[in-house]
Amino acid sequence: MSLPFSQSCENNKDYILAQLRRHFTKPFGRVLEIAGGTGQHAEYFAQHMPHLHWQSTDVPENVETLNLRLEAAGLSNLPSARPFDVTQDKLAHSPLDYIFSANSLHIMPTDAVTHFFRHMRYLLASSGVLCVYGPFKYKGEFTTSSNAEFDNWLKGRNSASGIRDFETVQLLAEEAGLSLLEDNPMPANNQLLVWTKS
Ligand SMILES: C[S@@+](CC[C@H](N)C(=O)[O-])C[C@H]1O[C@@H](n2cnc3c(N)ncnc32)[C@H](O)[C@@H]1O
Question: Would the pLDDT of 1 be above 80?
Answer without folding.
Answer: no
